[in-house]
Amino acid sequence: MMYLHYRYLNVHVWDSDRAVIRAARRKIAAHDRRDPAKRDARKRFYREMLRHHASDQNLVAEFRL
Fold first, then answer.
1. How many CB atoms lie within 10 A of CB 20?
2. pLDDT band for position 59 (50/70/90)?
3. What pLDDT, in 10s, does the model give residues 8-20?
4. Whole-angstrom Cα distance, residue 2 to residue 33?
5. Does the structure show a pLDDT above 70 at 4?
6. 9 to 31, 38, 39, 42, 64: CA distances (angstroms)
7. Which of 38, 42, 49, 53 is 20 to 30 Å from 4 at the Cα level?
8. Mean pLDDT calculated for residue range 44-62
C-alpha cells in the first residue's frame, strides 16, 4: 500500500533521495509536519519512501530500462 503513496510523489527514478524527501514532505499536511507527537510516524514514512525509491532504482539498473 505504501508503494502507491510513493508513486503519487511523481519523482523520476534517478532523482536524488533529497528530492524524494522533499516530495514526500509536500504530501504531508502542514499541521502534521509540525506535530512533535507524529515525528516517528513521519520518519517511518520518509524511510519507506526512500526504500521504495531505492528498490525502483535497483530494478531499473538491473533491467537497464
1. 20
2. very high
3. 999 999 999 999 9
4. 18
5. yes
6. 19, 20, 20, 15, 23
7. 38
8. 96
Residues for the chain: how many in total?
Answer: 65
CB 11 within 8 A of CB 51: no
CA distance 24 to 4: 12
Task: Look at the alpha carbons of 11, 17, 21, 24 in this order and tell me if their dihedral is positive or negative.
Answer: positive
Report CA dihedral (51, 8, 56, 24) to the nearest 10 degrees: -30
Q: Which three cell numbers stand for residue 62?
A: 538491473
Residue found by looking up cell 510513493 in the block: 6
Grid cell of 31 as nine digits: 499541521
